[in-house]
Structures are given as C-alpha cells and as structure tokens.
Backbone:
C-alpha cells in the first residue's frame, strides 16, 4: 500500500512489468532521457537500459509499425503516443495492421502490444493535445480499449494490459495525472471489469477516464439534495462489461453516460443502445448522454464550457428523473 | 565574385544525382555475360537452380491466371516478369532470415517452400493468408502498401536485442516507395543501424501510374540520402540480383547497417487479373521489356555455355507435373465457416464478441443449420 499520483502509479506499473518480463520493451518519443513529456516513464531508462526503454524517431506510424515487428519477434512492446491528437499518423498501423493481423493470420499470430495514450482536455493545452478518440478504436475489431481513472486502477491496469496477448489501447486521463490515491499491492479485479464506485437507486452515472471524477462530484452533489445517484467507472470500453452495466441499470432504471468525447456516435451511444436493448422493461427513462459537443476541440479559454462538468451532469440527472 | 556565384559554387557539389547509378548487370538481355560478368564469373550450377525456380514461378502465374479466368480464383496478381528479382534475392538470403513481402512475391514464396495451395488460398477468397510465417520465415502478405517495411524494421530491432546475426528482408515496389511508412522505415532502420534489407522491385508501374509520376530522384539515390547502403541492379538478370543481394546481405550481417537494392524490372501482366494495362501503357513499352525477359536471357545463357537438352527436358517435365498439382490444389481449397472466425480475432476471450458469436450460433440453430 502506498500513496501515488496517477502518473506515478503508471510509472510503478511499467517498472514492475519491465522487472517481471524481460520481453517488455517501452518505446516512444522522449520516453527515455526525458522520462516522457508527462514524466510517466521517468527513471526507467536509467534502470533498464536503452535496449528496453527506447527513445524513438518522431514517427508515430513507425512506433506502432516497428512494435508489430517486435511482437512478431516475441517481444511485448509498450508504446507511448505523446498526445491523443498525435495518434492519427499511426492510424493505419493500428487499425489495418495491428488490429487485424491476428485474424488475417487465421489466429496464428499474437500481438501483445500496449499503446498508451494520454487523453482528454482540461490542462489548457493547444489544439491536438486535448482530444478523446476512444470511439475510433473501440469501433475496431481486434483491439481492446481501456481507460483508467485513478492511481490504484492505473497501477494494476497497465500491468494487466501488458500481460494481455492482445493489443490494448490504454488511455491515461492527462488532467488526472497528478491526482493522488492509495495503491494496493495486488489487484482485486480483471482488466475488463467495470467498477461500481458508488451504489445508487435513483439514477446511475456511467463514466470513464477523466469524467469519473466529474461523475463522482455530481453524485455527491445529488446526494446533498437527497437523491441516490450511483457511479460506474467503465474501466473497459472494448469489451464493455455488459453484466455490470445491466445490473446497475436494472437497479436504478435511469442511466446517464458521461464522457469527454463528443456525444455524437460516441461510446455513450453504444452503451445507451446496449442498455435499451437488454433492460427495456426495467428502465424508467431513456438512457441519456453527456459529452462534448460535436466540434473540433475548442481553444483552451473555453474548454471549461465545452467539457462536461458537474452542472451538465446534474442537469441530465434531473432530466432523467423527470420521466 | 557575386553572392549568387558564391552560393552556386558552394552548393554545386550537393546537387542531387537525379540520374542515379548505372545498373549492375552480369548477363545482358541477349544472354551474353557482360564485362562485369566475365570478371566476376558466373556459376552455371547456381544459374540452373535459379532458372528452375523462375520457370516454376512463371508456370504458377500462368496456371493461376487461367484458373482465375475459369472462375476458380476470384483474383490473381502475377509476378510475371519479376521472377529474377525475387528468386535472385531470396536465394541469396539464409533460409532462417525473416522476410516481409508485399503481395506479389509468389516467386520468392515458392523458394521458401510455400505451396501453391497456400499461395492461392487468399485469392480464392478462402482466407486472408495461407501459411505459418514462423515455419517459412516468410510473413503473410501485406496489401496496404509499404506497411510491412516497418514490421521488418521492428523485427530487426528484436534481432539486434538478441544479438543474433539474422538479416531481415522486405519487398516493396516503386509505388509503395511514395508511402510515408517506407520512408519512415528507411530512416528508422538507418538511425538504428538495423539489419534490414529493403528490396524494391521497381516494375515501372503502380497500376496505371508510371515511376516518373512517383518520384523525381531514383529510389536508390533517395535511400543513400537516408544513410542506407544503396545498390542499383538489373532486376531481370537473376545472377546480378543474386550477386548484389549476397554482397548487401554480407555487409548487413557484419553489422554494416541497412541497405536498399533497387531492382529495375517490369510487370508483364496487369496489376491484377482485373486490370487492363492496355488502357495506360503502349505496346512498344511492353515490347521493349519483352526483349529483357528474365527467363529467356538465362535460358540463352545456359544453352550458350553448353547445358544440354536433358536439363531442359527434365525441367519441362517437372514444370508440367507442377502445373497439374497447381490446378488440383486450387480446386481443393475450401474456406472455413464464419462460426470459426469468431475465435480468431482475439487471443483471449472478448465478452462482447462472445455475445455476438452466441447470437450467430442461435441464429444458425433457428435455421436448422450448424454453419
């Protein structure tokens, strides 16, 4: 048990993975000497050497493409994409190569590759540094997509992702990197298991990544007004933890999905459809969604208005309760 | 001296070499050894082996195209015309050296023991690939151009981590050379001094687009700019390709870093069995390259040096037997049912896909079918 920041917990998880398996290789832009722009890989180069912690050329397609080659050679690469908006040069290597190659090989080949992506806004960054692009990857068969929200989950999930024999897109909520929390030595959950953070009988908020903190704050505010609002941290986007989502939906009958990505064709739409199809008779209201508007991420001066905040979540809860 | 003259003088020595290097050639198109061939010497036994490989590859193409026309294959992309480039290069590698092909490398694949049935599986629509790359040391085909060059580069990084002396080879074409991935791979391999052989079959045409539309500077010149050892070879001269590849691979294996070979060759067929090359290239273009046919040249050479009819008769017999196996193998290729594909997407269970698999199974059961 130790107190860590979320970024520090991922660092500790990477360190443990590097210690446990000498086939694990950490690679990306500035991950070595600098320790990454968010310092998530700080100190790893010094302790594991440049064969295991690799500063790469500035070439995202190259990072993922060469990781595929390393995996074919038996390695377990952990790639860092420096910012969410920089992943697109690697899109083809991720979507057409990494995701499909196992199926294309008839199941002969495995690609135990983790692609770490600092995600989302809220840090006052310039354009292309605040995006939430999980829906692209969740839509792609062959990938697993997970999103951590707190230090304990982050510490265990990064190790679970590295241990997976499938490619995992691993989202790190960049505005929560400095949040502190207790980290347990052993994990009590599987990678693809959602976490019920707060029970609620009136309404359930379903969130992931940076939106979980917002959802928890909204649930606390609702409790002050006498409403029992639960919070589920998805943790896993592909696959979804269908059972947990169905269970909480049946208890409260009202669900509001909260994420930072644009609502249109986002993960919330999938969750809404899933719950509507399987829990129709237990629902008291349509599943509602709170997310970003369908526009390119705006200049930082207005990002607080753009991102879902406690007030917008509470407004959606009130709307759900009004049915 | 004016400023412009000073600048001009200073930079003149950096002018890009847009003409490129002369082609390396050991046997000329008429089958005669060149002066390089005379001084290098030509191993007749090796020439016979390589010629046999090329004859089989060409026959596979001929049969497969016929099978496509008969409706037995849905598509076929011929290596016709590029046999020397492929056979000469892959035979210069060790059988343990990993190869990352594009999608037209049937001649090279045959040299790695991949069967015609396994090669045709993909083009019959029965599977996306047909062989185990771990066995043949020949990765599955890449259809999105140039992507495989990065896979080769990463694989080579693994070779270096293990301090192995393997070389990793990757094939691509003049069209793919315009892709970002190929140029990223050149740079990545060069900066890491990785043991990669980039082998470009410049077959002059990317579907309808000629090389002149792809690049201003010849590829081997561009590659040198990236810091690769660079070679320019007559890709229709199997002995020259073999000699150059042997040389390049030796240097790579000795720790000399990556190299590129640009082999000038020609795609005699269309891009695929669906393509009509008459829409974009002239009969004269074809005729000029027909005079440089890689098989005719080596056959003439072998006859000139006194290889007897026995060799050719035996080869013809072998070729006909091979053709029969190709036709038979094609008919016996069957796809696998959709139900079996659900398990091949992920290595570990995936809950939402498992739900879909169950739904599909239930649907089939409702129809009274098992697949």
Residues:
């Amino acid at each position: 048990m130790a107190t860590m920041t979320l970024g520090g917990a991922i660092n500790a998880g990477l360190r443990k993975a590097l210690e446990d398996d000498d086939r694990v290789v950490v690679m990306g832009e500035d991950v070595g000497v600098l320790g990454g722009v968010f310092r998530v890989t700080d100190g790893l180069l010094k302790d594991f050497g440049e064969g295991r912690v690799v500063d790469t050329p500035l070439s995202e397609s190259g990072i993922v493409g060469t990781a595929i080659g390393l995996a074919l050679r038996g390695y377990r690469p952990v790639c860092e994409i420096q910012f969410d908006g920089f992943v697109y040069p690697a899109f083809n290597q991720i979507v057409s190569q990494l995701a499909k190659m196992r199926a294309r090989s008839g199941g002969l080949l495995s690609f135990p590759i983790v692609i770490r992506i600092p995600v989302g806004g809220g840090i006052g960054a310039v354009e292309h540094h605040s995006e939430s692009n999980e829906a692209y990857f969740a839509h792609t068969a062959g990938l697993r997509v997970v999103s951590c929200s707190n230090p304990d989950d982050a510490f265990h999930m990064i190790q679970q992702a590295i241990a997976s024999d499938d490619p995992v897109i691993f989202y790190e909520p960049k505005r929560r990197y400095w949040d502190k929390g207790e980290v347990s030595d052993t994990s009590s959950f599987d990678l693809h298991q959602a976490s019920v953070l707060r029970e609620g009988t009136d309404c359930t908020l379903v969130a992931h990544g940076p939106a979980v903190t917002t959802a928890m704050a909204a649930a606390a505010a609702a409790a002050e007004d006498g409403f029992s609002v639960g919070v589920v941290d998805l943790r896993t986007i592909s696959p979804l933890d269908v059972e947990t989502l169905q269970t909480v939906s049946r208890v409260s009958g009202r669900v509001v999905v909260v994420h930072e990505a644009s609502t249109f064709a986002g993960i919330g739409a999938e969750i809404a459809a899933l719950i509507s199809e399987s829990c129709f008779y237990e629902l008291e209201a349509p599943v509602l969604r709170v997310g970003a508007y369908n526009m390119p991420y705006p200049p930082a001066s207005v990002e607080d208005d753009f991102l879902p905040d406690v007030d917008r979540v509470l407004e959606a809860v009130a709307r759900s309760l009004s049915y | 001296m004016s400023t412009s003259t000073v600048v001009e003088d200073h930079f003149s020595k950096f002018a890009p070499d847009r003409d490129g290097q002369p082609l390396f050639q050991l046997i000329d198109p008429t089958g005669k050894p060149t002066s390089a061939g005379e001084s290098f010497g030509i191993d007749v036994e090796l020439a016979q082996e390589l010629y046999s490989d090329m004859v089989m590859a060409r026959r596979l193409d001929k049969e497969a195209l016929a099978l496509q026309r008969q409706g037995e294959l849905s598509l076929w992309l011929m290596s016709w015309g590029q046999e020397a480039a492929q056979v000469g290069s892959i035979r210069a590698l060790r059988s343990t050296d990993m190869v990352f092909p594009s999608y037209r490398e049937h001649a090279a694949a045959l040299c790695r023991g991949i069967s015609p049935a396994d090669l045709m599986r993909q083009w019959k629509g029965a599977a996306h690939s047909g062989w185990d790359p771990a066995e043949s040391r020949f990765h599955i085909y890449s259809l999105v151009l140039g992507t495989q060059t990065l896979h080769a580069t990463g694989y080579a990084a693994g070779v270096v981590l293990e301090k192995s002396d393997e070389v990793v080879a990757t094939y691509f074409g003049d069209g793919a050379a315009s892709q970002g991935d190929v140029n990223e791979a050149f740079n990545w391999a060069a900066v890491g001094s990785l043991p990669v052989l980039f082998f470009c079959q410049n077959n002059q045409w990317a579907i309808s687009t000629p090389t002149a539309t792809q690049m201003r500077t010849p590829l081997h010149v561009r590659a040198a700019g990236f810091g690769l050892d660079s070679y320019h070879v007559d890709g229709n001269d199997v002995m020259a390709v073999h000699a150059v590849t042997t040389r390049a691979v030796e240097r790579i294996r000795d720790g000399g870093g990556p190299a590129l070979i640009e082999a000038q060759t020609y795609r005699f067929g269309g891009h695929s069995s669906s393509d009509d090359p008459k829409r974009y290239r002239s009969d004269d273009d074809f005729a000029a390259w027909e005079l440089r046919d890689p098989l005719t040249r080596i056959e003439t050479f072998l006859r000139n040096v006194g290889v007897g009819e026995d060799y050719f008769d035996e080869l013809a017999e072998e070729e006909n037997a091979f053709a029969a196996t190709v036709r038979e193998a094609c008919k016996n290729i069957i796809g696998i049912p959709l139900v079996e594909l659900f398990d091949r997407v992920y290595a570990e269970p995936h809950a939402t896909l498992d739900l879909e698999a169950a739904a599909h199974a239930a649907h089939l059961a409702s129809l009274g079918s098992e697949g």
In short: Chain A touches chain B through 49 residues (CB under 8 Å).
